[in-house]
Specification:
The structure holds two protein chains of two kinds. By secondary structure, chain A is α+β, with helices and mostly antiparallel strands. Chain A is 51% helix and 18% strand. Chain A contains 25 helices and 26 strands. In chain A, helix 7 packs antiparallel against helix 8, helix 8 runs parallel beside helix 13 and helix 16 crosses helix 17. Chain B has a domain of 37 residues. Classes of the chains: A alpha+beta, B mainly alpha.
């Protein structure tokens, strides 16, 4: 785990992390950096020039589409140097773990599909050209010659280009199942074989153009599908690759930076302020406060010192800690919660998409129809050749050209729209499931709120006292100090003359003002009584301490999103592990009446299950580890990019960026895309209703097949593009 | 109709040139960074001489 997942402030969390990664594991070779802020030609050359000018760099290349830089080095260069150097010229950079970027594999698959698409497109155009000549009246020896040339082009091209369908069909047939690719492969092969046979007999009709254009259109659908998925997958991979897992270990009195995977039980780890625990362990030295919100949802930092047990995923806030590892890797509590997700995942009934349902009706139907027309015509006329021709014409005409494009074209258009808004659709059926929801359940900490505190109101106090508070706060990087300081600075508060300032990790900051001891920190430490909520106290000498109360801030756009969801008639709930008081104030602020506080990961999942049991369909939006089980249980789930890896893995959609109102319109787009898919199915069905009787009657010609195929494919694609 | 003897091979050849051109661009990874390549035109780097490999 690393700091990058901490939602509060990605930039300041990345900084201490960069220090840890001082020396990359792979001394030579590639370093991959992500550069989220580059956007122009000037950025490319500035970044490349800066990196190339650094010692030991052999080459540096920026990819603007992926917003990444790949650096090749011939000697060990600390990754931190690159990040610092780029930071100096104003570009934010983070290291990516190249082993998690399987870009090349997906690229290779995409390139292969594109090659096949190109070959089939080339062949289709040539064969069509020849076919037009035949349709416009070429006959006798000219027609035969044209058929032979068509065969020479179409047969090898189809056999090469249609391989994805053949292999897929073969693999399901071996398991005695049917999918869409079975009728597709059968139609293509039968069209080729009967056309070849017809050509040798100088027959009138050859379907070479149908076979190759079928391959072309279906490959286009396949490619769209692949691109949509790989786009989302590569972005999701990039999020995981951002967390290069490293830890600082103290061995023989020396600190070493090592990979988290190499840690063993008993290792002594140095956990700096701002770092996340990579293991479960006991504190053996140091005093600090930890933020457990990612595990429990509770926003108030907890005090820890020697003897306290810490769990992986918790964030150290103030002082450095020495921790002896008690559980590593698979045994950490972090991992055990991930296991909970795996269990929930296996229990989740696999969702069957509309497309799959259509295919399961369609595939057997087509075969039966084709077989019946073959048998019928054979019994009626006793002409094997004609019956076979009619049967293959039926297969070609019914073949799901439009069906193969109907869904991918719509999902590509819809995902493209949402991608522009910063939303990654990870699951192929996510849009379909979103269109069905009637209840939205939010997590509070880190989802509805930023997970960072903000001063509720300035207490009534003398200006000098506030100045003292500002001065003390400026000496600490504790979240509460920072929040206090920014609130006081907003008031234009000047600093007081405080001397001997010293941060006591886990307690607060103290100093001397006019000879009096002044302290800013925990209630117990300054001698105040603390009731509830998140607060820090200022004590000046023997005077009654002044309390500063804090509350979590709402994420930008939260109100807009909630209002929109309500306007669409959806039920909105809050489900949080935080205290009743904290949850209630957020709920009231947003006008949400249904909420539950103090929930555990298991009770969260149970809450969702009981909603499902009462007939609701739930969309869960959450980011914490305590949400993962609930995210998996829900019908469909969304998490922010700042969420923990496990939570992102468990959810179907990830939104990049800090604003919640990015999600405004998601339900609308999902509804629209479902409407378009259904319309596309209707168009495809309508076309079959018209064309199939013609084919069964034996009246179909290659011209009719080509016209119907192209028309229906173009109509469904245009219909898909109507998504706004 | 004798003209077909020339026209058909010519049309197939021209189509083939297009196909191989496309396959070449695909192989030399010219579709990896469409956005970046579009912007690189605006750079004045290597305007005077080609970039050494």
């Amino acid at each position: 785990m690393s700091e990058t997942t901490f939602s509060a402030c990605p930039a300041c969390n990345a900084a201490p992390f960069a220090e840890q990664t001082a020396l990359g594991d792979d001394a030579h070779g590639n370093v991959v950096l992500t550069l989220p802020t580059i956007h122009c030609a000037a950025c490319i050359s500035a970044v490349e020039r800066t990196l190339s000018a650094m010692p030991n760099v052999t080459s540096a290349r920026v990819n603007l589409t992926l917003k990444r830089a790949t650096i090749e080095t011939d000697a060990a260069v600390p990754v931190e140097d690159f990040i610092k150097e780029l930071g100096a010229i104003g570009y934010e950079a983070h290291e990516l773990d190249p082993s998690l970027l399987m870009q090349s594999e997906m690229e290779r698959a995409a390139r292969k599909l594109l090659t096949r698409l190109a070959v089939s497109g080339f062949a289709m155009m040539n064969v069509m050209l020849l076919s037009v000549a035949v349709w416009s009246g070429a006959d006798g020896i000219t027609r035969d010659m044209f058929h032979w040339i068509s065969a020479m082009i179409a047969v090898p091209a189809t056999i090469y280009a249609a391989q994805p369908f053949f292999t897929s069909a073969w693999s399901v047939l071996r398991h005695r199942h049917l999918n869409m690719d079975v009728p597709i492969s059968l139609a293509i092969l039968l069209a080729l074989v009967t056309s070849l046979y017809e050509t040798t007999l100088s027959g009138e009709h050859a379907y070479f153009d149908a076979a190759i254009s079928l391959t072309f259109f279906l490959l286009a659908g396949r490619y769209l599908d692949h691109r949509t998925r790989s786009m989302a997958r590569s972005a999701a991979q990039e999020l995981s690759a951002l967390e290069v897992p490293r830890a600082i270990v103290r061995r023989d009195g020396r600190d070493e930076t090592v990979g988290v995977k190499s840690l063993v039980v008993g290792d002594i780890l140095v956990i700096r302020p701002g770092a996340r625990l990579p293991v479960d362990g006991d504190v053996i030295d140091g005093t600090s406060e930890v933020d457990r919100s990612i595990l429990t949802g509770e926003t108030r930092p907890e005090f820890v010192n020697i003897g306290h047990a810490l769990r992986a995923g918790e964030l150290n806030l103030t002082g450095p800690l020495l921790v002896r590892a008690t559980a590593v890797g698979q045994d950490t509590s972090l991992h055990q919660i991930s296991e909970l997700v795996a269990i929930a995942e296996s229990g989740r009934s696999k969702y069957t998409s509309i497309a799959d349902k259509a295919a399961s009706l369609y595939a057997p139907g087509v075969h039966i129809l084709s077989a019946i027309s073959f048998i019928g015509w054979f019994l009626y006329s006793g002409d094997l050749r004609m019956s076979l021709n009619i049967a293959s014409a039926v297969l070609i005409i019914t073949c799901p050209c439009a069906l193969g494009l109907a869904v991918p074209a719509v999902t590509t258009a819809a995902s493209g729209r949402l991608y522009k808004k910063g939303l990654l659709i990870k699951s192929a059926t996510a849009l379909e499931r979103i269109a069905q929801i009637d209840t939205v359940v939010f997590d509070k900490t880190g989802t509805l709120t930023n997970g960072t505190p903000r001063l509720v109101s300035l207490p009534i106090a003398q200006a000098t006292h506030l100045q003292i508070a500002a001065t003390l706060a400026s000496h600490s990087s504790h979240p509460l100090s920072r929040a206090l300081l920014s609130a006081l600075d907003a008031q234009g508060m000047s600093r007081a003359q405080v001397t001997d300032v010293n941060e006591v990790p886990g307690f607060g900051i103290e100093g001397r003002f006019d000879g009096m001891l002044v302290r800013l920190g925990r209630a117990e430490w300054v001698g105040a009584t603390h009731d509830q909520g998140t607060a820090t106290f200022l004590a000046i000498g023997d005077q009654t301490p002044i309390g500063f109360e804090f509350a979590d801030t709402l994420r930008l756009g939260a109100r807009d999103l909630i209002n929109e969801l309500k306007a669409q008639g959806l039920d909105v709930h809050i489900l949080s592990g935080d205290t009743e008081l904290a949850v209630k104030s957020v709920a009231q602020d947003l006008g949400i009446t249904t909420f539950a506080a103090g929930e555990t990961p298991i009770s969260k999942a149970a809450y969702i299950s009981s909603l499902h049991a009462s007939g609701k369909t739930v969309l869960m939006i959450g980011d914490g580890l305590n949400d993962t089980a609930a995210l998996t249980t829900a019908h469909v789930s969304i998490s922010p990019a700042s969420a923990l890896d496990a939570a992102r893995v468990a959810s179907d959609i990830v939104f990049l960026g800090a604003r919640l109102d990015q999600l405004v319109g998601v339900v609308g787009v999902a509804d629209q895309s479902q409407r378009r898919i259904k319309e596309n199915f209707q168009i495809a069905t309508l076309y079959n209703v018209v064309a199939v009787p013609i084919a069964i009657a034996g009246l179909a010609t290659p011209l009719i097949a080509a016209l119907a195929m192209s028309l229906s494919s173009i109509t469904v694609t245009l219909n898909a593009l109507r998504i706004k | 109709m004798d003209v077909l003897v020339y026209l058909i091979p010519i049309s197939i050849f021209l189509g083939g040139v297009g196909l191989f051109g496309f396959l070449y661009t695909l192989k030399s990874k010219q579709y990896d960074d469409p956005e970046g390549d579009a912007r690189r035109i605006l750079n004045s780097d290597w305007d005077d001489r080609p970039k050494p490999d």
